[in-house]
Amino acid sequence: MSQPQPLIRILPPQLANQIAAGEVVERPASVVKELIENSLDAGANQIQIDIEKGGSQLIRIRDNGCGIGKQDLTLALARHATSKISTLEDLEAILSLGFRGEALASISSVSRLTLTSRPEYQAEAWQAYAQGREMEVEIQPASHPIGTTIEVANLFFNTPARRKFLRTDKTEFAHIDEVVRRIALAKPNVTFVLTHNEKKVRHYKAVEDRSLEQQQKRVATICGDEFIQQATHIDWQHDDLHLYGWVGSPTLARPQNDVSYSYVNGRMMRDKTINHAIRQAYGDLLPKETYPAFVLFLDIDPSYVDVNVHPAKHEVRFHQGRLVHDFIYQGVLNALQAQPHLPLSESEL
Ligand code: ADP
Ligand code: MG
């Protein structure tokens, strides 16, 4: 009997990348998130985001970060290629937003991607171009100030099933707008400009200093004056845990609250532990079926939290969930009790 042919094969890199892209690149807003995070990791303090047709035609992100050298341009687009970690220990101490080395490979496998960059040590800029299908990267000289521009054109042009799931330009842009808001809220020292079809839609100017007053400015711009007027500032610390931000008065509670932002080590999260602790702190103060308004940042030793739970990094896992929960609960409770218009708690009567 002849030996049967093997049935198992290793997928070509292009297909493997497209499959991985399914997890990271859900829609144009996910591309925008990944690219802005890269700009922030590169130390940029000016990020320009240009969108055409809800991002399906063009997403262009330009930053003044550290740039990518010519020798690294092709590698930047390869899968599992990253400058941010090299060992498991690095991952456990991670402070950068990226580390999976996947975003650019995934995005370039489902779009026409151009990466132009110039680091300070290079006199001229270089440009890499990758177009979905073959994944062959071409490199040529270009002109660009120090920093990086990434252009993502015709997203999902070669994955029609994905393209079909795109909503109207208006809806896709609304998602992008929200992603930019979330990130801008956490990075008041960075200027963000967002345009849609060549019209300037947002301009979040970097704050002048790290004073509370300046920080509040960015929050007020994004969450509205009403929020900041009816919110209490919180700054709560215990051992390695630090919780700060703003807790809205119960009068700001809504059935679907637009202002509910929580971050872990600068990363936007929707985390059950955090949400539960916050809700519990509000307790009966919240009218039924409503959610509180808050902007809260939790800083925690990165070794106490696993950020590698989902490719898009929407979730974290705390090693000591109970401890984190109780810490947040206490912090928010204290802030709420400090709000002048609230009834005193039983222990104070
Ligand atoms: P990750 O962010 O997980 O490392 P990416 O695929 O998003 O993976 O990016 C790959 C690499 O390309 C990064 O590790 C970084 O070295 C480089 N890079 C990407 N975007 C930028 C940028 N805007 N500025 C400087 N370097 C960048
Ligand atoms: Mg990245």
Automatic annotation (TrEMBL):
Please list the residue ranges annotated as the DNA mismatch repair protein S5 domain. 219-337
BP terms from Gene Ontology: mismatch repair
**Keywords in alphabetical order:** DNA damage, DNA repair, Endonuclease, Hydrolase, Nuclease
Q: Looking at the UniProt record for this protein, which Gene Ontology cellular component terms does it annotate, in alphabetical order?
A: mismatch repair complex
GO MF annotation, one: ATP-dependent DNA damage sensor activity
Function per UniProt: This protein is involved in the repair of mismatches in DNA. It is required for dam-dependent methyl-directed DNA mismatch repair. May act as a 'molecular matchmaker', a protein that promotes the formation of a stable complex between two or more DNA-binding proteins in an ATP-dependent manner without itself being part of a final effector complex.
Please give the family membership noted in the entry.
Belongs to the DNA mismatch repair MutL/HexB family.
Its recorded name reads DNA mismatch repair protein MutL
Origin species, per record, is Ursidibacter maritimus
Quote the gene name from the UniProt entry: mutL
Portion held of the full protein: 1 to 349 of 633
